[in-house]
Amino acid sequence: MSTAGFDELIHAPTRLEIVSLLAAAQWADFKYIRDQLGLSDSALSKQLSTLESAGYVDIRKSFVGKRPRTSASLSKTGRRAFEQHVAALQQIIARSGQDADAGPAADADRRILRR
Fold first, then answer.
1. Above 60 in pLDDT, residue 15?
2. Which of 15, 17, 19 is closest to 82 using CA atoms?
3. Is 74 within the bounds of a domain?
4. Which CATH number belongs to the domain containing residue 24 in this structure?
5. Which is more confident, 18 or 106?
6. pTM for the full model?
7. Mean pLDDT, to the nearest integer, of 7-19?
8. Is residue 86 a part of any domain in this protein?
9. 66 or 112: whose pLDDT is higher?
């Protein structure tokens, strides 16, 4: 298991969504990422460049026929940073005394049991 480590770079909402999506795939096509997250080409390109500069994402450019194709993959460094960030978020949730999987209904049950 990874040690916890909050990562400000990953925590930005758009980058967190990108990294989370990439964590579930070996490689993801630029268009797929864009469409899944509802981003513009320029917004996705900027965020991928930021993640690539940090060493969190690998970018592969190729051609299919005469058309360029860009794909992204989470690097080993990026995967480790994501796992540590998730662990840090889980610790924050655990400190709040709430079960992340249980939701509001379980909170109400706990309040009733305490009475």
1. yes
2. 19
3. yes
4. 1.10.10.10
5. 18
6. 0.78
7. 95
8. yes
9. 66
Q: What angle do CA 93, 85, 106 make, to 5 degrees?
A: 20
Distances (CA, A) of 38 to 3, 20, 43, 84: 32, 15, 10, 26
Cα torsion 41, 44, 48, 49 to 10°: value is 60
- Find the domain containing 14 and state its range: 8-114
Say whether 111 sits in a helix, a strand or coil: helix
The count of other CB atoms within 10 Å of the CB of residue 77 is 13
Question: For 23, what's the count of Cα atoms within 13 Å in the CB-facing half-sphere?
Answer: 17
Distance, in Å, from the CA atom of 13 to the CA atom of 108, rounded to the nearest integer, reads 29
For residue 115, pLDDT over 70 is answered with no
No. of helices (H) and no. of strands (E), the chain = 6, 3
